[in-house]
Amino acid sequence: MDDVDHRLIALLRDNARTPVSTLAQKLRVSRGTVQNRLARLEEQGIIVGYTVRLRPDAEPRGIRAWMSIEIEGNTARRVLQSLRGEPAIQALHTTNGRWDIVAELRAGNLEDFDRALERIRLIPGIANTETNILLSSYV
Fold first, then answer.
1. Is there a contact between 69 and 103 (Cβ–Cβ < 8 Å)?
2. SS3 category, 36
3. Sorted alphabetically, which PROSITE patterns does this protein's record hold (predicted)?
4. I need a surface site. Which of 20, 60, 119, 133 has the fewest CB within 10 A?
């Protein structure tokens, strides 16, 4: 990837719906160049998709939380596989330091949230968890 690719990705991170003609104008290259670079970045698996970001208050109300997870021994792959199947988990992140994984959780109400915590804590290979409910978000 060169500087133009990096700037193109930065523009898409800001707004993935920016028209190709606008991207070309901002990058000072032709539309064909932008289209070819996008196609190449997608084919190489550098760009794997496009998404929508919502304001925190635009999403349905519910319980949101971060769960820090400590893994026993060499069970990380098995635990990650099990966590991927948990409907309350929105995202998973491996980390360094005290915790091995951080999971972003979402549930419609406290009862659903409690059941999700119970299911997650029963996954073999999870040694310890710490969960923090998100109270407010600021963009």
1. yes
2. helix
3. HTH_ASNC_2
4. 60
User: From its phi and psi, is residue 15 left (phi > 0), alpha (psi between -120 and 50) or beta?
Assistant: beta
Q: Extract the tokens encoding 30.
A: 């032709």
Structure tokens at 50: 């496009």
Amino acid letter, residue 125: G
Question: Scanning the structure block, which residue is given the tokens 């979402």?
Answer: 106
| pTM for this entry | 0.61
Residue 87's Cα: distance from chain center in Å? Answer: 14
Q: CA 34, CA 21: separation in Å to the nearest integer? A: 8
Task: Retrieve residue 93's tokens.
Answer: 């992140």
The answer to whether the CB of 106 falls within 8 A of the CB of 63 is yes
- H helices of 15-109, in order, are 20-27, 31-43, 76-84
Q: Check residue 70 and report its DSSP letter.
A: E
pLDDT tens digits along 6-60? 999 999 988 999 999 999 999 999 999 999 999 999 999 999 888 777 776 666 6
